[in-house]
Structure formats: structure tokens, C-alpha cells
């Protein structure tokens, strides 16, 4: 009496398994295309920021200014490819001397590809997109943003802290926006032993666009531009 029901259940499970198996190839395709398209963009800077910021907002104009300066200084600039501050990032780079890259994510709302991209890639999976943000970045510049921006900040801090990625500049822009978070890091995370006080030195907060560019150059003058043999092993 139960055989038809069991058979139907197995049929559904088989279909789900087949669908999940095919997703592996979809994920592989995203990695492959990303590696092929982005392997030549170095040196590059990855920038993040809110998708919800209008073009007349100070944050938008600040992001565009920083991105243009980075592009003119020889850095390919990478963003999430969407509207808001991401658009400002791509626009500044697009008008500069170096390539503008957008790593777009397919979402039910918010994410529409902006037109200021020399290289544009589309992702279905956040995790494969994250790898592309990190893999070729010489620096991270974090503009004001929401959960997605905080997620990317936490991601790079964790990777560098645990030595899964090399030490790169991690720059938060606009100190009034970030002050509360940094105070919480100090007063709660450090105070309760959740992170070491030295971990706070993994990032810096700047307000002036040219200071952002100078900080990246100063970092590599001190630490050197190319990964060490040990860092290469970690990256591989």
C-alpha cells in the first residue's frame, strides 16, 4: 500500500539531487569566468557601499572622487556593479585611466547593473562573487553601506586575521558613519576578549579622498608590492 508513496518520494528526491548536482556546474562556470576575466586586472582596489544612495548624496560624490583618483593612479577599480554608491564607484573609475569592473549579483530587488563598466560579470551566488572581490584586490575601500557592505567588511577582516588572505589596506571612509562600530569593536569585542586589540590595526578610517590613495601606496612602500612565498602559498 505504501509503495506508490515511497516511489513518488524517491522520484522527488532524485529530481532535487539532479538539480543540486547541476548547480555545481553553474558554480564552476562562475569561478571559471571570473578567473579568466579578472586575472589581468592587477593592481586593483575593491570598493563597497550602499545600493540605496542617490546621485546627489555626499557619499555618492565622495565615492566617485575616490574611485577616479584610484583609477588615475593606475588601479583597476572593482565594485558590486549595482546602483547607488556602487554606481558612483564604477562611474569614477570609468572616467579615469584604468578599467572599471562590476561584479553584479542577481537579486529580486535593488540590484540593477549600472552602465559604467568596462568588465561586467553576473553572479547568482554570493560566495563565488566574494572570492572575486578578494582574490585580486590590492586594497579594500569601504564606503557607508548596509548589511551587504558590513558582510564584505567582516569577510576581509576575518580572512586577514586568520591569515587566509594577505595583509592589504582595509580603509573605512567617512569617520562619522563608522565611529559607532569602531567604538563597539573597542568597548565590547576587545574588552570581552572576542578579538585582540592588535586586530583593530587591520583597518583605518579616513575622510579625505587623496588620503585614501596615499594610504594604499604607503602600505605597499612599507610591506612591499608582491606577495611573499608564504603569502603565495596561502593564496593558492
Features:
2 domains; 8 helices; globular; seven-stranded parallel sheet; alpha/beta; 53% helix; 7 strands; 236 residues; Rossmann fold
What can be said about this structure in brief?
It contains 8 helices and 7 strands.
Poorly predicted ranges: none
Assembly annotation: single chain
Radius of gyration, whole Å = 20 Å
CATH topology of the largest domain: Rossmann fold
- Topology order in helix (H) and strand (E) letters: HEHEHEEHEHEHEHH
Query: Helical content, roughly?
Result: 40-55%
Structural class: alpha/beta
Q: Based on the coordinates given, report the CATH architecture of the largest domain.
A: 3-Layer(aba) Sandwich
For the terminal residues, how far apart are their CA atoms?
55 Å
Number of helices: 8
What's the total count of β strands? 7
Number of domains: 2
CATH classification, class level of the largest domain: Alpha Beta
Q: What percent of residues are in strands?
A: 5-15%
* Inertia-based shape: globular
